[in-house]
Amino acid sequence: MQRVKLSKDLTAAIRSGHPWIYRRALRALDPSLRAGDIVAVELDREPIALGFVDPASPIAVRVLSVDVDARIDAAWRRRCVERACAARESISGTNAMRLVHGENDYAPGLVIDRYDDAGVIRYDGAGAEAMWRPHEAALLAAAGVCAPDREVIRIEEHGARFDVDIARGQKTGFFLDQRDNRVRVRALAAGRTVLNLFCYTGGFSIHASLGGAQQVTSVDQARPAMAMLAGHVALNELDAGSHELITGDAFRFLEGAAEAGRAWDVVVCDPPSFAPSEKAKPKALRAYRRLNQLAAAVVAPGGALVSASCSSHVTMTEMLGVLAACGRRLRVVKMCGAGEDHPVAPGFPEGAYLKCLFALVE
How is 58-112 classified by DSSP, letter by letter? Predict the structure, then answer.
């Protein structure tokens, strides 16, 4: 086993569970190292962890174990998946969930999502792919799912039905992490008008309608996603006349809606990540502030604003600041994250990437 040497002492962070070692924290890597190679991480010649390398990535090593005597073999990989799946046994009401959540399940770079009987695997980077892909069939078997045999899979989520395009959809096909927050919006929706921005294939929209929403307006600029949303309205036997589907830019839509004096009782604002890196964060926060100002402006008095960020670089405190600057007086009554199939390793704060705030607007 080759070794990599730390240029600064990260022992405490690594032993507390932080799985990432950036290239800048390492001395020069041996040029013979290939993506996925297992290495011992050393400080002053003392091994402190085992990990795999990704020489082309800023995250040069992902930690697999702080047991330097561990044997990272096929059995180790299988046990890793089995432990993660066992933690999901109490989840009910759906046949779709995340079974393995990467670093947060101590399986760096590996995601396995279940859609009905199928398991969809994603690898985060070349190192993770080299580490896990050769064992893909065994990983799926350990997770109790099979390789997908179709591109579109029907799922159920607390009575709502969706067709998930696992080949062309975002993430692995569906935003599983927002499941619990969709149910929370459903509980708010009875007899109210709802606006769902960046709606994708309509998760929040369908739940709101099933919850008794009077009218649901859904906005997204992706035509294929809007076509799937129309199909989901029919699939769930909902009144098409109570759904307004808008294909277009959410910022422009909100500007036009405010000019026209339109308002909704519940506004859901769940944009894609505006901050893919720490460097992008200042610009992202400006975008979040602008978006939430526009969204808050079309919430009817006494209504609710549901505002989300899926960027790990934006904190819950910063999202509170975004809402404080929205131009409306409001009260945040819930601060939520992802569902329990998206756990957070306590030594890895970046794992708490999803923030979803429920606010009452005066």
Answer: SEEEEEEES-TT---SHHHHHHHHHHHHHTTTT--SBSEEEEEEGGGGT-TTEEE
Assigned CATH for 74-149: 3.30.750.80
pTM of the predicted model as reported, rounded to 2 decimal places = 0.95
What tokens does 271 get?
């944009």
| CATH hierarchy code of domain 153-361 | 3.40.50.150
d(CA 206, CA 343): 25
Q: What three-state secondary structure class fits 268?
A: strand
- How far apart CA 32 and CA 2 sit, in angstroms, is 10
CATH class for the domain made up of 2-65 = mainly beta
pLDDT in tens, 50-102: 999 999 999 999 999 999 999 999 999 999 999 999 999 999 999 999 999 99
The per-residue DSSP string of 171-219 comes to: TTSS-GGGHHHHHHHHHH-TT-EEEEES-TTTHHHHHHHHTT-SEEEEE
> % helix / strand / coil in the chain, to the nearest 5?
35, 30, 35
Residue whose pair of structure tokens reads 């589907």 in the numeric block: 245
For the chain, the domains span: 2-65, 74-149, 153-361
Please name the residue that has the structure tokens 């859904």.
218
